[in-house]
């Protein structure tokens, strides 16, 4: 994972870690030797082996972001830390941070409450009980007891065509999948992004939200656009 980290952010937290007991208790060093596509793996799955004879290797990453982002992170003890490089490993519901430079080991973050990316359109992530277990979700909108969230996952798409002399390079590619849910307590309902799903979400405002989506060229498959749709409906 170290090769994926943002250049120049290496020594940002060195002194910070030495003086923060709470923070040091919240992270665990972890070498990911079994993650396909991870630069720290024992095997470079993109070059060392072809598990799929139709493929020339692997493109993409099993982590949520192609490149790590910086975030404000709140721990369960109440402490909040700014500008921490992080990434999310959806398969294991894990958050990784890196605080010691490009060549340092990634750390698994423990006992965190929420994290918010530092960018023009920030993303808020939190652990919520969903589909029978704690899941890392992106919180898009909250009103009273209702929470509207996006569940991100990554899956490997493999080529289906056998290679021949006329076929160029083809790869196994990590793709992002996003599902939306409305959560109320322990109850959750999936929200589909097709026409019928938006109609059910909008109830009596379907014609208005459809006109809004058309005018603003919004695609509910994108979380930033779905967030705007929810704000239009419920604000």
UniProtKB/TrEMBL annotation:
Residues 1-24 form the signal peptide. It comes from the Bacteria. Keywords: Signal. This is Uncharacterized protein.
């Amino acid at each position: 994972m170290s090769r994926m980290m943002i250049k120049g952010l290496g020594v940002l937290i060195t002194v910070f870690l030495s003086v923060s007991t709470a923070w040091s208790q919240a992270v665990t060093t972890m070498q990911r030797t079994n993650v396909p596509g991870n630069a720290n793996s024992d095997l470079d799955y993109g070059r060392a082996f072809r598990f799929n004879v139709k493929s020339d290797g692997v493109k993409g990453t099993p982590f949520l972001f192609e490149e790590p982002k910086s975030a404000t992170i709140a721990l369960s003890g109440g402490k909040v830390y700014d500008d921490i490089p992080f990434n999310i490993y959806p398969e294991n519901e894990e958050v990784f941070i890196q605080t010691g430079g490009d060549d340092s080991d990634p750390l698994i973050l423990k006992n965190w409450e929420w994290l918010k990316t530092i960018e023009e359109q920030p993303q808020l992530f939190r652990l919520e009980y969903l589909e029978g277990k704690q899941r890392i979700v992106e919180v898009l909108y909250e009103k009273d007891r209702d929470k509207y969230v996006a569940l991100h996952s990554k899956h490997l798409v493999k080529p289906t065509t056998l290679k021949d002399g006329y076929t160029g390079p083809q790869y196994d590619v990590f793709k992002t999948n996003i599902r939306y849910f409305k959560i109320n307590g322990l109850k959750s309902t999936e929200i589909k992004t097709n026409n019928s799903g938006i109609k059910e979400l909008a109830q009596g405002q379907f014609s208005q939200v459809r006109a809004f989506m058309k005018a603003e060229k919004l695609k509910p498959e994108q979380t930033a656009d779905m967030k705007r749709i929810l704000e239009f409906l419920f604000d």
